[in-house]
Specification:
By secondary structure, the protein is α+β, with helices and mostly antiparallel strands. The protein contains five helices and five strands; from the N terminus they run H-H-H-E-E-H-E-E-H-E. It has a domain of about 70 residues. InterPro entries: DUF2058.
Amino acid sequence: MKKPQTLSLQEQLLKSGLSNDAKLKQVKAEKRKQTKLERNNGVEIVDEIKLSAEQLRQQQVERDRELNRQRKLAEEQKALGAQIKQIVEMNRIAQDPNGLAYNFTDDNKVKTLYVAEKVREALINGRAGIAKVDGHYEIVPAEVARKVQVRDADSIVVLNEATQDVAAADDPYAEFQIPDDLMW
């Protein structure tokens, strides 16, 4: 039994007709010239293929770096969202479906929450705020609302400035009382 004969790449190209003897001799001569120049002069011949491969590798490294940065940023945002959700859920004030309506705006739309009168007063006077978490609204104390606002300002929909019940001395309408049952 005979062993199959393995042909070199050059022989295979010649046999298939993809190359000829003239091209083969030219490639060998170029290779000899390059090795002789490198050996004698210590000069390294720049290979365009190697150079372009290195540039592609550098571009790939930059793309990977940018993708990693974006992925890390997305993970941080997700963790921040979970942190805000946890803070709000732990400190939320219960809503009262039979209570008074409290109207507020979110994205130029009027929204309504039904709350107890005491909670409504707290919202008006700035002792409580409304946070938007996962598309629904929760009422939280003002301190909690400020903590959430530091982390993500868009999560807090309503947080009025703390007001004093004492009328200002220079208020021209101080002598007029606001009716208790006035709602907008």
